């Protein structure tokens, strides 16, 4: 898969939302239980910007009829909304079904690790359901460590689920070794 990364534009929001909504039914990726709307994601979209909290899309140049389509997206989001946490960001990754299992998640995390220092970020966090084995494995493979577990804080279809907090100090030897 030949892909290119770029900052998202407002024109990308429908595809970003479609990819996000495609993960809801699995009950593994998001705590939303109903599809979200483009309108409901506008404030979230505008909270991102290329200089501090980017929202990237990955275009799959081999998709469809010779055109480019969004295969994945990654966002850097504020953690906890207080000034003392400005150097910490949560990253979220969502892949289109056709792009899963092809190493794109690893490439996205590596790109985020590379970009973090220039964004003024030295700590990255991931919040992942405890039963989402694929995402947990991805983040751990990229050097993230388990920093916390919130037991049974989410209820999905009547089933209580854990939330695992994974963290990584950017530039630490553990993440550089993991990505080699």
- CATH homologous superfamily heading: Gcn5-related N-acetyltransferase (GNAT)
What separation lies between the terminal Cα atoms?
A: 20 Å
Total count of strands: 7
Q: CATH topology, what is it called?
A: Aminopeptidase
Order of helices and strands: EHHEEEHEHEEH
Shape: globular
Strand content: 25-35%
- Helices, by number, come to 5
Q: Write out the strand line-up for the largest beta sheet, numbering strands in chain order.
A: 1-2-3-4-5-7-6
Mean pLDDT reading: 91
State the CATH architecture. Answer: 3-Layer(aba) Sandwich
Rg, rounded, reads: 16 Å
Major sheet details: 7 strands, mixed
Can you tell me the residue ranges where pLDDT is under 50 for at least 5 consecutive residues? none
Number of domains: 1
CATH class category name: Alpha Beta
Q: Structural class from helices and strands?
A: alpha+beta
Helix % is 10-25%
Short description:
The chain is built from five helices and seven strands; from the N terminus they run βααβββαβαββα. The chain has 180 residues and is of the alpha+beta class.
Overview of the structural elements:
It is a single chain. This protein has 180 residues and is an alpha+beta fold. The chain has a single domain (3-178), classed as Gcn5-related N-acetyltransferase (GNAT) (Aminopeptidase, 3-Layer(aba) Sandwich). The chain is 23% helix and 33% strand. It has helices at residues 13-22, 42-46, 104-115, 133-141, 173-178, and strands at residues 3-7, 55-60, 69-78, 88-95, 123-129, 145-156, 159-169. The chain has a 7-stranded mixed β-sheet with strand order 1-2-3-4-5-7-6. Strand 6 (145-156) and strand 7 form a beta hairpin. The radius of gyration is 16 Å and the shape is globular. The protein starts with a strand and ends with a helix.
């Amino acid at each position: 898969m030949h892909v290119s990364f770029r900052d998202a534009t407002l024109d990308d929001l429908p595809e970003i939302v479609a990819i996000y909504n495609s993960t809801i039914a699995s009950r593994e990726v998001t705590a939303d239980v109903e599809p979200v709307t483009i309108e409901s994601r506008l404030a979230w979209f505008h909270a991102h910007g290329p200089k501090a909290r980017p929202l990237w899309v990955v275009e799959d140049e081999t998709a469809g009829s010779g055109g480019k389509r969004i295969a994945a997206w990654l966002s850097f989001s504020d953690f906890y909304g207080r000034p003392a946490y400005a150097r910490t960001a949560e990253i979220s990754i969502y892949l289109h079904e056709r792009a899963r299992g092809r190493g794109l998640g690893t490439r996205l995390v590596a790109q985020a690790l590379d970009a973090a220092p220039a964004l003024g970020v030295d700590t990255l966090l991931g919040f992942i359901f405890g039963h989402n084995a694929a995402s947990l494995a991805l983040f751990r493979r990229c050097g993230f460590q388990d920093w916390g577990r919130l037991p049974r804080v989410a209820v999905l279809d009547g089933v209580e689920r854990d939330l695992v907090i994974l963290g990584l100090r950017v530039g630490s030897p553990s993440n550089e070794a993991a990505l080699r």
